[in-house]
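tool=predict chain=A
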Amino acid sequence: MSITPLTRRTASAALALTAAAALAVQATPAHADSNAVPTYEVKINLTTAALDSSHAPLAAVKSAFGISGSASASARSYAYYDTDAQALGAQGWDVRLRHKSGKDFEETYKKRFAVTGGDINAALTAANAAGFDSSDTNYEAEVDWGYAKQTLSFSNEKSHSASGYSGTAMPTGATGLGWLNGEIPGKLADWNTDGWGTDTLAASRVHGPVTSSVYSGAWESSDDASIEVVPVVGAGGSGTEYVVELSFKTDDYDDAAALHADAISVADAKGWLYKGDILKTQTILDRY
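tool=predict ok
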């Protein structure tokens, strides 16, 4: 039995519709997960006018920012790992090994995204496009809010036994590098191309370590306030300089904004404010 011209046209149309439907299905983009929801850490630098002769915060500074006056400082040692040319940092990655007294070692792999003009949502969207979204529970999203600069970061935290290490003692650079490279997360391992992160970290060296003193308390809406005093080698390669960082953690943007404004106002009125952003990580990478 032959097919009539009308039937042929009908069959052709049906085939065309079927093909178009198939293409439409193929062209429909996969549903993307929502942007991550960050927490906030306000970080304001103070000048050394906020320190006494033993390089501890003045009693007036502690009182002004809710730092427990009777509590002694806790110590922490840490170091960063990158190549001499800072190839990891150039791609927005920081790799850190930290040891708090009496704790296991903390291994941190952090990816940074710039926040331009205060547009945190745009930074979160850029991070989403790079694979950092709300579905990835291996990374914690945080906005670091400095004097004039904001940075969005995603941190992957791992730990390593501190058995055999007392206080805040650190391993040799080679030992620490072995630990970090052995537990490198997949996003960093294959950043750019397969194996790029693994190869780049393997070619890295230790920058540091430094040992800081941390004074803790609570202020305004933050029950996680602190002043960290970090001694670093001078820019010329000798002597010691002190980075003083006042910080507050909160889950809420509005609270972070208020903490930021109020901390700057108080520190400025007292003559303690450093009117700029001292990037602690970059200082250590550059000077060690």
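Residues 235 and 287 are 7 Å apart (CA to CA). The first helix runs from residue 5 to 27.
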